[in-house]
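Page 37, continued from 36.
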C-alpha cells in the first residue's frame, strides 16, 4: 500500500527524515448508546472492537453524586468512525461524536479557552463590556459575538450555530477545522437564515438581522442597501434602509420554500 511504503521512507533529497502518522487527523470519535451497556466496562470495547483505541463512559452529576450512563465515547484509529460495532451478542450503532463549541469564559469568544485568552479584561457574558459580572449587569443584553440581543452563551446565537455546524461536518467527514469551515459555508447559511427570517417576520430581534457578522463575511454581503419606495399617488417618497442580510434571508427563504 502507498501508506506502508511512505512509512518506510527515511530519506528525501539526501536529507534524513522520519515519517509518522498524524494522531489528530487519523483518529475519530463516535458515540454508542444502549441500555444494555449499563453494566459494560470501557475495556470491553478495546478487547472486542479492533479499531477502537480508547473508550470513555459519559457520566452526569446530580448534586454531589456522579452517575454512570449507558453512553460511551469511542476513539477509532480511522479518519471517520465506523458505522457499526459489536461486543459479544450486542450489535451497536455508532454515531459521530460532536463536541460542544469551545467558548472562552473570559472574553466569551469561540476557538480558545480561558487559559489561552489574550483579552486584557474579563467581559460580561450579558453585555460584552468589562468591569462587572453578569449578576450585577444593568446594561442592555448584547452578544459579544454576533451583536444580537442575547447573552454570549445563548444557543440561539448565530455564531454558536455556525461553530456547531462546522463541528458536525468535521465529525462526519474528518479533516481539519479549517477545511470543515470552508466546506460548510453554504450549509451554515441555509441553517441560520431561516431562523433570522422568522425573527424578521415576528419583529423580535432588530440587532440579529443587521449584525449576523459571520454569515455576511462568509458570503461577502455588504452591510446595508438603501431603497426608495412610494406609498401611492400623492404620497411622499419614503426612504428605507433595509439590511442586505435580511434581503438575502427573504430571497433564500422564497427559493428554498419553493423547492
Amino acid at each position: 500500500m502507498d501508506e506502508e511504503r511512505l512509512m518506510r521512507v527515511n530519506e528525501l533529497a539526501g536529507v534524513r527524515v522520519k515519517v509518522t502518522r498524524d494522531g489528530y487527523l487519523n483518529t475519530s470519535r463516535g458515540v454508542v448508546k444502549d441500555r444494555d451497556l449499563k453494566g459494560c466496562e470501557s475495556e470491553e470495547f478495546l478487547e472486542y472492537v479492533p479499531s477502537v483505541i480508547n473508550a470513555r463512559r459519559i457520566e452526569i452529576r446530580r448534586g454531589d453524586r456522579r452517575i454512570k450512563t449507558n453512553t460511551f465515547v469511542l476513539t477509532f484509529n480511522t479518519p471517520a468512525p465506523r458505522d457499526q460495532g459489536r461486543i459479544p451478542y450486542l450489535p451497536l450503532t455508532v454515531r459521530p461524536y460532536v463536541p460542544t463549541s469551545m467558548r472562552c469564559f473570559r472574553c466569551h469568544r469561540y476557538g480558545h479557552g480561558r487559559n489561552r485568552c489574550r483579552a486584557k479584561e474579563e467581559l460580561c457574558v450579558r453585555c460584552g463590556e468589562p468591569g462587572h459580572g453578569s449578576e450585577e449587569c444593568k446594561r442592555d443584553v448584547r452578544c459579544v459575538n454576533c451583536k444580537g440581543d442575547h447573552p454570549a452563551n445563548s444557543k440561539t446565537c448565530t455564531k454558536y450555530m455556525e461553530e456547531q455546524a462546522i463541528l458536525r461536518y468535521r465529525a462526519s467527514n474528518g479533516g481539519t477545522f479549517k477545511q470543515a469551515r470552508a466546506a460548510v459555508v453554504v450549509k451554515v447559511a441555509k441553517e441560520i437564515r431561516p431562523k433570522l427570517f422568522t425573527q424578521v417576520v415576528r419583529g423580535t430581534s432588530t440587532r440579529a438581522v443587521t449584525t449576523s457578522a459571520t454569515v455576511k463575511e462568509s458570503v461577502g454581503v455588504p452591510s446595508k442597501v438603501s431603497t426608495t419606495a412610494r406609498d401611492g399617488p400623492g404620497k411622499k417618497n419614503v426612504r428605507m434602509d433595509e439590511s442586505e442580510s435580511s434581503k438575502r434571508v427573504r430571497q433564500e427563504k422564497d427559493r428554498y420554500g419553493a423547492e
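Residues 14 and 83 are 43 Å apart (CA to CA). Flag for discussion at group meeting. The radius of gyration is 25 Å.
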